[in-house]
Amino acid sequence: MTAADASDDGSGSPRPGGSAQRSFGLTVATALIIGTIIGVGVFNLPTSLATYGPISLVSMGLTTVGALALALLFAALSRRMPADGGPYAYARTAYGNTLGFFSAWSYWITAWAGNAAIAVGWVLYVEVFLNKGHNRFVSVLLVLVGLWLPALVNLVGVRQMGLVQVVTTVLKFAALAFMATVGLFFVDGANYSPANISGESTVAAIGGGMAIGLFSYLGVETVAVAAGKVRDPDRNIPRSTVIGTLATAVVYMLSLVAVFGILPAERLKDSTAPFSDAANAIFGGTWAGNVMAVAVIISGLGALNGWTMICAEMPLAAAHDGLLPARFKQLSGKGVPAFGVVVSTVLASVAVIVNYSGSGGTSVFTTLVLMTGITAAIPYALSAGAQLKWRLADRRHLQGARFVRDMVIAVLSLVFSVLFIWYSRDTSRTSWGYWAPFLLAAAALLCGLPVYRAQRRHMTPPAEVPPWR
Fold it and tell me: How far apart are CA 123 and CA 140, in angstroms?
């Protein structure tokens, strides 16, 4: 293998086929950020947040601050260390193989469980046209179609995946932009009152809404995770991360303000396709809602397409360092980590079937959303900790405004990560369902222990901390 056939994986070891796989420029990288952030989460979010009422708009505002802090955090970290695996690579380099493994494992859970949640939310809009009676067996079959179709697209190869990502991103962004502009002219101020209908305190309601809202921003780190596929990563990873997150934040906040102002919270609580219902309220009849549903369906496929790639990229990076079984780093003839794609899709399918066995679609969606919030916040917090550790060490050589900015962003990211975990109880349910997100996340994390023990003798030493730049 020549230097032209490999790329650095962040640990000093080459990744086979690296240069051939660097097919993402700034446009595709930005589309990947927007496309993976904007899945179906935001399109189902009004129903999940309606339990708290319009006060959840404050929750989303604070979650947006946290998401922007995370975007700036990963932009800074990627400049220092543009390595495959993103959060995993940062945690491993900063803290060693043990925390590196659990960061990778936790993020991998986030990716495939998040895919399951996206597919569930996607089906709620598919059922605007099919299975209108929400037969549970048919719903599960439709979810499985939503999971396996993007898996097949990924298995075809990266170039096709990038094309699908750009096209679907344009369509989904347009749907949100429509609601964020036209929708604002149909807002009824009376729908914002009462603000808090949850029966909980203002702080608890805002915190609960933040935990749910995090899911709609998962993806700010995806270009950092897929660093091996990005051309000129030093330049394109930070720029695409910040541009994509800012653009998404604007349309998110404005479109949610519109939906909560068009439909009262009590109606949103019972809605399975809130953006379609809002479109119908604007124009009357059902045609506008159907058009919106089609846009959301396309949006969901685009997000599933991007996240299916991420499901394989994280274990690929970890396998190159010996932290996960070698099967995860084997590439197909198309240059795709096919084993990771298939295993992740199988696990997402199992998660869907298990969750549907006791709940309907909207409850399953909320539970999976909160579970992934917990497992995502762990590698987010470890990444923030890595930045704090490295920048404090750098201070001996570098002080000034940039040091202060990086420290503030890292502290904000760490605080928001902790808050996302703390408020991830499912307050819309009782009994075990209240703690279901924590129980499911804990069970999935514990499954990593035997894998860790089996891989310990195969783990390579972490790389040295790259110098700040």
Answer: 9
